[in-house]
Amino acid sequence: AGVEYVAELQLSTALQGSYTTALSVKAPDQLEDGASNTWLVRALSEVGTETGWGSTAGFVVVQMEMAQVIYGGTPSMAAHVAVVFRTSQSLIGGGIVELQAPAMYKFSCRALDGFDALFIPGLKSCDDSGNGLRLHLNQTIAPGDYAFLAGITNPAFTPSQNTFSVVLIDTSGAVKDARAELEGQRIVQGLFLYPPSLDWTSSQKGTESEIHVTVKVSGKLDPLEALGPLRAVQVAVPERFTLIVKEPVRNIDGLPTPEASWYHLFFTERLVRVDIVESHTAPPREIPAGSY
């Protein structure tokens, strides 16, 4: 009592034998490497003399099964951030999905800035005040996979503490599931890219669709600057979509590429790679500002 991490039970009578008592504790989001996870019990007399003691290993703190915070490391620029997580817990009747982030990142709940609830059910409101982001829900979240998008403005440099946490909080304010210490992206100096945009010819299920990916370069990408040479652009196709490798990739707006064999389709990995240079030994190209 009065000491952090200590619970004191006062007894009205002497005890001898085996007894069980129940304590309510709040577990941490995670245990740091090397942190002690041993529970100690001491028996003290009325005058404070130790009459016995024992120890046992503590319970394992299990983090959320999977969580990702995905965004581009563009310095001091508005971008999009995708938050993806898988939980084994339920938020009965709603609750809060909270993204905890370093104070140097600024988030936006505005649709114009990229916010989209995607696979988050029962969104009541989104709060981007202060650090991070909070989604307030009025429907139950069941165990499963979830994702949402938000607007983000990156800092000019990589913060010294650059970690994120995804936390699920129930209607009583208790943490039901969490994933802490997710490493953030390195802020890359000279990477002057706006969030890419997508256009498609069909959204009907089971049909083929041509996808247009537009990459906007706000300032020229000079291989001699801090960013270094840009040698390729990769586009990853999401799960449950099939990459059709029989159709060629088209360079619509003149992205600087080699004259031949400048794209590669990887069916199994659902990956498209567009080469900017012929080989790793070829001199790098400068990418002018523009949309490609």
**Beta-strand content estimate:** 25-35%
Q: What is the gyration radius calculated from CA atoms? A: 26 Å
* Helical stretch tally: 0
- Uncertain stretches: none
Name the structural class: mainly beta
Main sheet strand line-up: 7-8-5-10-11
End-to-end separation in angstroms reads 65 Å
- Morphology: elongated
* Run of helices and strands: EEEEEEEEEEEEEEEEEE
Give the helix level as a range of percent: under 10%
The main sheet comes to:
5 strands, antiparallel
Q: What is the total tally of β strands?
A: 18
> Could you report the average pLDDT, rounded to the nearest whole number?
86
Question: How would you characterize this protein structure?
Answer:
- By secondary structure, the protein is mostly beta strands.
- The chain is built from no helices and 18 strands.
- It has strands spanning 38-44, 50-57, 66-71, 78-87, 95-100, 106-108, 123-127, 133-137, 144-153, 163-169, 175-183, 197-200, 211-214, 216-217, 232-236, 263-266, 271-275, 290-291.
- The strands form 6 sheets. A 5-stranded antiparallel sheet has the order 7-8-5-10-11, with no helix packed on it. It has a 4-stranded antiparallel sheet with strand order 3-4-9-6, with no helix packed on it. A 3-stranded antiparallel sheet has the order 15-17-16, with no helix packed on it.
- A hairpin with a 5-residue loop joins strand 1 and strand 2.
- The chain starts with 37 loop residues before the first strand and ends with a strand.
- The relative contact order is 0.14.
